């Protein structure tokens, strides 16, 4: 191996603390891929390995890799004005135009945006704004945030507390107070929780339209309609976390559109720039924004240095232009159909595949020991499948939280039929290999 590759691997192990990583294993094995290049749905590393990015990296590279026009727009904005403060009365054109554009494409009357650098900040912002809203409304005890099992809302303190996946909360022994959890698919559980706690103590309910990191769980058809009714009935804000589901991923602009309801606030990040810059935010309804304007007396004491970052906002505008021009939302729907059909075919061929599901290009394959009883293997197979698939040229991800044994797959929205077939071939070969090992 080239010396400089070895050197990079050693430097990585010595100096680079990897996010969300099995630290011992990472130290032993070193970096599996040091990516140097991306093109469409493909990533290439410095050893020349080419893999399909079956996860759009972290569910975010919606328009695919290596788009020169994104580099051009970033360069142009950076050369003019990369960044300036948006605190108080300062502003910049890309931030203004992006906020206006988001108002145009967001569901219903969501019309005002608070910008952040990513999804975790967006979630913490939403919770703080929701709590502050009730203080302004003269109901200061409405502070609790209800969230769901199997949910993921980021790793800042608020997002960690809101995350239903327990290992994230148990990472430390002290998290943010005033969060509570209900079953992810039961609107009745939400109603019961509200009754139990008292609606006068509850600020908001937060939910991902389709749960991502928790294993791609798609809510029953009526679920969010019922949630909307319950939140209205008890005067509780309904917040959707569209960090993954926003900007076309599920075949609609935003995931909640599948359910025909409009939240009071909406978190977004990832697909807003397709990963070409770091950006997220929270939108609120015009009605809520009007109330903020009317009832606020002091300063809105919440703001990040990079709230409204000019370069990031101009990159987002270009990204949305591409999504619309290339009709990537319709494409996500169509290719999502192809992907799900591919999953079903794999399921017929491989006995270790249990339930398969997808909404747009957000899909999951469950691994089981027995297709009928749904019994799973004592040691989860999904992580092995992930490693084996990567060797064959496909990056996917495993979810083993809450006794799951699931593969999640979410390729860029630009994926074509041939590339979907390539993904399925690699998956099929991988399943065959793992089946041979497990069943003989
Ligand atoms: N919410 C959801 C639904 C997410 O999927 C994520 C990231 N996977 C986050 C919040 C956190 O976003 P970030 O990693 O940009 O802070």
Which fold does the CATH topology of the largest domain refer to? Aspartate Aminotransferase, domain 2
First-last Cα distance: 35 Å
Helix and strand composition category: alpha/beta
Question: Total domains, how many?
Answer: 2
Major sheet strand order: 4-12-11-10-7-5-6
The count of DSSP E runs of length 2 or more, i.e. the number of strands, is: 17
- Report mean pLDDT, rounded to a whole number: 97
Model description:
By secondary structure, the protein is of the alpha/beta class. The chain folds into two domains: 32-63 and 327-439, Aspartate Aminotransferase, domain 1, CATH 3.90.1150.10; 68-325, Aspartate Aminotransferase, domain 2 (3-Layer(aba) Sandwich). Helix content is 42%, strand content 17%. It has helices at residues 3-15, 23-29, 56-59, 68-81, 93-105, 119-136, 157-162, 166-169, 187-197, 223-234, 286-295, 310-325, 328-349, 382-391, 417-439; strands spanning 35-39, 42-45, 50-53, 110-116, 144-148, 179-182, 202-207, 210-211, 217-218, 237-241, 265-268, 280-285, 353-358, 363-367, 394-395, 397-399, 406-409. It has a seven-stranded mixed beta sheet, with helices on both faces. Strands 1-2-3-15 form a four-stranded mixed beta sheet. A hairpin with a 5-residue loop joins strand 8 and strand 9 (217-218). Helix 5 runs parallel beside helix 12 (310-325), helix 13 packs parallel to helix 15 (417-439) and helix 14 crosses helix 15 (417-439). The two termini are 35 Å apart.
């Amino acid at each position: 191996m080239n010396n400089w590759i070895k050197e990079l691997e050693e430097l990585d192990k010595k100096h680079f603390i990897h996010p969300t990583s099995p630290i011992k294993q990472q130290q032993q094995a070193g970096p599996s891929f040091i990516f140097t290049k991306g093109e469409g749905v493909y990533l290439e590393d410095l050893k020349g390995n080419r893999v399909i990015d079956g996860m759009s990296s972290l569910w975010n590279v919606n328009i695919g890799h290596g788009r020169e026009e994104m580099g051009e727009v970033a360069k142009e904005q950076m050369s003019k004005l990369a960044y300036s403060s948006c605190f108080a009365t300062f502003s910049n054109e890309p931030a203004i135009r992006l906020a206006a554009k988001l108002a145009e494409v967001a569901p219903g009357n969501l019309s005002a945006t608070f910008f952040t650098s990513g999804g975790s900040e967006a979630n913490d912002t939403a919770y703080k704004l929701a709590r502050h809203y009730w203080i302004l409304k003269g109901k200061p005890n409405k502070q609790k945030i209800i969230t769901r099992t199997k949910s993921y809302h980021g790793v800042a303190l608020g997002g960690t507390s809101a995350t239903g996946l327990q290992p994230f909360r148990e990472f430390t022994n002290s998290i943010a107070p005033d969060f509570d959890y209900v079953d992810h698919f039961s609107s009745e559980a939400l109603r019961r929780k509200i009754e139990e706690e008292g609606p006068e103590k509850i600020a908001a309910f937060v939910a991902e339209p389709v749960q991502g990191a928790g294993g791609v769980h798609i809510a029953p058809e009526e679920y969010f309609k019922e949630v909307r009714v319950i939140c209205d009935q008890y005067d509780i804000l309904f917040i959707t976390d569209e960090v993954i589901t926003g900007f076309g991923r599920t075949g609609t602009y935003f995931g909640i559109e599948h359910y025909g309801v409009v939240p009071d606030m909406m978190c977004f990040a990832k697909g807003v720039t397709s990963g070409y810059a770091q950006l997220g935010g929270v939108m609120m309804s015009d009605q809520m924004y009007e109330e903020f304007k009317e009832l606020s007396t002091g300063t809105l004491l919440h703001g990040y240095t990079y709230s409204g970052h000019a370069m990031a906002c101009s990159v987002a505008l270009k990204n949305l232009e591409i999504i619309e021009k290339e009709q990537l939302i319709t494409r996500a729907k169509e290719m999502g159909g192809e992907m799900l059909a591919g999953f079903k075919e794999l399921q017929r061929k491989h006995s270790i595949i249990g339930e398969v599901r997808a909404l747009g290009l957000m899909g999951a394959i469950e691994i089981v020991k027995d297709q009928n009883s749904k019994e799973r293997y004592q040691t989860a197979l999904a992580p092995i499948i992930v490693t084996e698939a990567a060797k064959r040229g496909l990056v996917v991800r495993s979810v083993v939280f809450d006794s799951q044994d699931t593969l999640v797959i979410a390729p860029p929205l630009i994926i074509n039929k041939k590339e979907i077939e390539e993904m399925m071939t690699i998956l099929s070969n991988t399943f065959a290999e793992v089946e041979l090992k497990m069943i003989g």
